[in-house]
Amino acid sequence: MPEEAFHALPYLREILIFLVVAVLVVPLFGRLKVSPILGFLLAGLVIGPFGFRIISDAEEVGRFAELGVVFLLFKVGLELSLDRLIQMRRFVFGMGSLQVLLTGLAVSGVALLWGNGTAASIVIGFALALSSTAIVVRLLVEGNAIATTHGRASFSVLLFQDLAVVPILLLVSLLGGAGEGSLWGSIAMALGRAALAVAVIALIGRYVLRSLFRFVAGARRPEVFMAMTLLTVLVTAVGTAYAGLSMALGAFLAGLMLAGTEFRHQIESDIAPFEGLLLGLFFISVGMGINLFVIVPQLPLIAPSVLGLMIIKAVFIICIARAFGLSFANATRSGILLSQAGEFAFVIFAAAIIAPTAILPTETAQFMTVVAAISMMLSPALPFLAERAGRVIEARGAARAQDDSDFSGLNGHVIIAGFGRVGQTVAKVLEVEGIPYVGVDTDTQLVGQCRAAGESAFFGDGTRADILDRLGIGQAGAVLITMNDTHAAGRTLSEIRRNWPDVPVFVRARDGAHREELQLLGATHIVPETLEASLQLSGRVLEAMGTPSEAVNVIIEQFRENEYADLADIIESAPPSADEPPAPRN
Q1: What average pLDDT score do residues 136-156 get?
Q2: In terms of C-beta distances under 8 Å and separation of at least 24 residues, what long-range contacts does 229-236 make, across chains too?
Q3: Which of 134, 215, 414, 495 has its CA 20 to 30 A from that of 171?
Q4: Which alpha helices (DSSP H) does 338-420 contain, by range?
């Protein structure tokens, strides 16, 4: 292609390179079961000005790539609601403000000990106190954790961090030598513009935006509806940018206003390609900002700096989260997820260099930029570490709680081995009837959630005789085995029959073959889950075909009294459907 074509259409060359990277990176890292974020970061490092210089102007690409964060925050706003955000205000303004203040002061103190000046240390501390909204939210969405306790807490902190960017930039102006009068005037003007922008977006979203979308949707033209969506995102983003706030915050507010409308799902579908591609471009731009020539000679300092930063942030966030009522496991998850630096650190460092009186030397700013970028490159590994650490903490807590529990006073209770959905449903029925129960499961997160809800659940392996003995099986009225693992269910039943042959044992069977195995092992009563579902569906069909409900109940109960024998023969002899492979037979 002639060189003139690239000049005629700005960014054409960069767009072509980016699309090639996207087409290669996403499928490749998907096969490796690794987050594509890491792939985009590495690709940016390779093609950037400090790699093979395939793209030399990283700054221009970075400005365009900021739209990825804008669309991501718009999507997050769509998934929330104003009511939920109001409920989160304690975490946003309480936990978020303490995190920025305390972490910023702690990192500033470390920077001061390293020989930086007071002003430079303050800028470094508060710039690195911010985390990456784009990366963390993306990781939470990919891990289906945005609605979890630690996901909501993490997002609340990120939201306040976006709000804190403006005061931090004003602080840079103050430290850079801005006049006293002009400083306070600038602060008042900036806060006024920010409040006005948020109020205007809220009013337009509440009284105008829904009507506009109804008008556009009435045209029944998909391209016009998409244009309206893009216009909403960009106008709100530009509006908050003019007010001195981040563009991402404006897009988030717009998404929040549309979250409760009937257009939410169509809008999410329309922006998905833009959000994914532009966010990938953002991560590429982050990778392009890493200067290998700076990293290599200073690697002995950079590595401990990155590690120290992430440890300091994680420790402070864990302590603050605990103070706001999060469990130690969830506080640890949030602390690890938010331990990296954020994209706004680059903006703050750039402002500190060009201030009226430069606060940071260029070498120091470049060093801190590399530290921030490397910490962001490590982010794809953080969800795994966070979840692993959380599970270990929950397992130890559950074990301690179990050690402290005394089951000697229980008599005639029900032991539920496998406390998943079926086990919890049975537990609710027992609780209504006033029958004591004890649930046991090896899923630490599940046990932690159930205990937090006040249920009698404990961590342990139900296949082990010593665990069952601690749960008071000798005095139990019955044992219910509802494990998903058929082999574990069989081992549990065998262990019970070997040590406590007289205890009634009720077992959930996966299929006919599993039912026969459980009968041989000595189960008191077996409920095949597929057959029970078939009975329920059969009853609904009979009612729909005109059979009186009383007759339907009699028919269903007849099958139950016969232990499903006739229906089992019918189902076992029926050929499998086209969508269902034949069940393996022993």
Answers
A1: 85
A2: 229/267, 229/270, 229/271, 230/271, 230/274, 232/258, 233/70, 233/71, 233/74, 233/271, 234/70, 236/201
A3: 134
A4: 344-354, 362-377, 382-404
Which residues 6+ apart lie within 8 Å of 11 measured at CB?
60, 61, 64
Best CATH choice for the domain 410-523 from the list 3.40.50.720, 1.10.10.60, 3.30.1340.30, 3.40.190.10: 3.40.50.720
**Distance (Å) of CA 276 to CA 19, 36, 141, 227, 375:** 12, 11, 12, 18, 22
Contact between residue 369 and residue 349 where contact means Cβ atoms under 8 Å apart: yes
What's this model's pTM, rounded to 2 decimal places?
A: 0.65
Which tens digit of pLDDT belongs to each residue from 331-353? 999 999 999 998 788 778 877 87
Q: How many residues does the chain have?
A: 586
Q: What sign for the dihedral angle of Cα 300, 306, 310, 316?
A: positive
Write 265-274 long-range contacts (CB < 8 A, 24+). Answer: 266/225, 267/78, 267/229, 268/75, 268/78, 270/225, 270/226, 270/229, 271/71, 271/74, 271/75, 271/229, 271/230, 271/233, 272/75, 274/71, 274/230
